[in-house]
Specification:
- The protein has a nine-stranded mixed sheet, sandwiched between helices.
- The protein has helices at about 10-25, 30-40, 85-95, 105-115, 125-140, 205, 210-220, 225-245, 300-310, and strands spanning about 5, 60-70, 75-80, 100-105, 150-155, 160-165, 190, 195-200, 250-255, 260-265, 270-275, 280-290, 290-295.
- The chain is of the alpha+beta class.
- Helix 7 (about 210-220) packs across helix 8.
- It is built from nine helices and 13 strands.
- The longest helix is centred in the C-terminal third of the chain and has 20 residues, at about 225-245.
- The structure holds aspartic acid (ASP).
- Aspartic acid binds near residues 170, 180 and 200.
């Protein structure tokens, strides 16, 4: 038995590739890293890795996290510039006893020292999106729309569970801003005795609920994976509304140790990709329904529209 689940349609090609590893009795950590790298390498997926969304100063600062659910090893990089695969650096750091979350210059020094591939991650398309967004923001006053994180969770045939994330974070974020994605328990969490979860959405709000840990904790206490996702999202959403009057976007995917998966969101249109042993690869599109998330398989039209908007330059995004 094996399963892999990941946030957003952008994970499709990566999940497909990672599934081959899992089908051939490969390792969950390799599967998660492979899927994450494929999204990072694809310049059309504009909020992760190469071609990622720039910050306020037109600088691409990337965040990534990784957790090995067998060893509980956690690694993360935050605000790293010009390395091709932040998720691989995070995975490498998850093998360290100490100094396993590195930010900025320290992360870059470590990555250089370890021989990770350097790459200019700011593309012409990202520069155009940046300029367009600056114009748009003068009218809307809302710079932060249009971000997404790839979060991947997998269980392999030996019962090993891993989770990882990668993102450029919020579009036009302040230099040095760090979201939930490299923060263990918020952006990702994995425990081979129970399951794993990953998050995407407004990092500042996801972190307030340590949402990935909360999902795994709920599973540990006996909730099924779908209930754990739904309850964690709706409890955090309600808490944020009570305390602050509003809640940002909160979306999650998770698996349990038996290869079951779940997803939950407080927005319409969150998509995720799943592949399980003996099943076809599936892309689901979700609907938030008062604390319970429903989802259906993406239609041909939806998939075609996704490709046309995501490979467009600037006019369509
Ligand atoms: N959670 C990410 C962040 O706040 C962005 C996203 O997933 O949309 O950096």
């Amino acid at each position: 038995m094996w399963t892999i689940v990941a946030t957003w349609r952008m994970a499709l090609e990566g999940v497909q590739e990672a599934s081959k590893i899992l089908a051939e009795q490969g390792d969950a950590c390799d599967a998660v890293e492979t899927a994450g790298k494929m999204v990072e390498d694809n310049q059309w997926y504009k909020s992760v890795g190469f071609g990622g969304l720039p910050n306020e100063e037109m600088d691409v600062e990337l965040d990534a996290g990784f957790m090995n659910g067998n060893t509980m090893g956690v690694g993360a990089v935050a605000g790293i510039h010009d390395f091709a695969n932040p998720i691989s650096i995070a995975r490498r750091l998850s093998r360290e006893e100490t100094n396993c979350m590195l930010a900025g210059l320290g992360a870059e020094r470590f990555a250089s020292h370890e021989g990770f591939e350097r790459k200019n991650m700011l593309t012409d398309r990202a520069k155009r999106l940046y300029r367009e967004k600056i114009q748009e923001t003068k009218q809307t006053q809302n710079p932060y729309k249009g971000h997404d994180t790839v979060g991947i969770a997998a269980v392999d045939q030996n019962g090993k569970i891993a989770a990882g994330t990668s993102t450029s974070g919020l579009f036009l974020k302040k230099p040095g801003r760090i979201g939930d994605s490299p923060v263990v328990g918020s952006g990702f969490y994995a425990d081979s005795e129970t399951g794993a979860a990953c998050a995407t959405g407004l990092g500042e709000d996801l972190m307030k609920g340590c949402i990935s840990y909360e999902i795994v904790r709920r599973m540990k206490d006996g909730e099924g994976v779908q209930d754990a996702c739904d309850h964690a999202v709706s409890a955090l959403e309600q808490k944020l509304r009570r305390s602050r009057g509003k809640a940002g976007d909160l979306s999650v995917v998770a698996i349990d140790k038996n290869g079951n998966y779940g997803a939950a969101t407080n927005i319409d249109g969150f998509s995720f990709v799943v592949m399980k042993e003996n099943e076809e690869l599936k892309v689901f599109v979700t609907k938030a329904n008062n604390g319970h998330t429903t989802y259906s398989e993406a239609s041909e039209e939806w998939l075609a529209e996704y490709m046309s908007t995501h490979s467009a330059l600037v006019e369509k995004k």
